[in-house]
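#lab-general

N.A. 3:47 PM
ok so I finally got the sequence cleaned up, no stray characters, all 278 residues accounted for. can someone with queue access submit it? mine expired

B.Y. 3:52 PM
send it over

N.A. 3:53 PM
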Amino acid sequence: MLAVVAQLRVEESMSDAPRGLDPVGAVLLATGIGALLAALVEGRQGWTAVTPIVLFVLAALLLLAFVALELRSASPMLDLMLFRHPPFLAATVAALATGGGIIALMSYLAGFVGTALGIDALGAAILLFAWSATSVVTALLARRIPAAVSGRTQLAAGLIGVAVGMVMLTGLAADAGWPRLLPGLLVAGVASGVLNAALGREAVASVPPGRGGMGSGANNTARYVGSAIGVTVVAVVAVPAGDHAAAALVTGWNTAALLTAAISLVGAAVVAMSRTRR
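B.Y. 4:20 PM
back already:
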């Protein structure tokens, strides 16, 4: 139904200079990120072992090859020169930090509260709903934020708010119940709503006319890449190899929450500094 309405009512936007596909670039990026994720997973068994070292080197080579190809390609999948434009850099870094921060930690929440804290499936679902529903409602209300508050300011504030919420989720003990988690999830939910609303706008507004598809695609890719790496890192940090005792899992959660909060703060700092670049 929505597709039919969109076809009838939404005006098609076409680029004046259509761009070709970049299959080699897509393969290099996908395999490079895949090798990096595999290296992080294998590293849990020992960071000096041959397998993770080889995978890290392979990931670096593939990603460097991707950068070299994109710089020389007439029709790159991603025009790397866009990163010289501060608004585009801010939007992309914010998306990367969103994936590597709050999305990564929330992906682990349900499993953690069930295994380590003994909260049943319904309780875990309610906790996730508290974060996600708050985020959705806030994103809808974010349109009322005054125009004087720039998109980059909203991105930085959202990332800082997310970090505050995740810090509130640290310091857990093995007997913590769902009320201990709820305040941090609500704070993170409000901040996530502001962040997600601003990301969608800045992804398109930060690129020249005719590059909206590339801007949106780069932003979504950055978020997915950040979440893929973040989920892997959270799993490595939060679940010690060979130790699934509740106390160890709680300690791992506290460390992972601080780490993802730090990722969000680094993202906020980069976004804030990009505002002053010329």
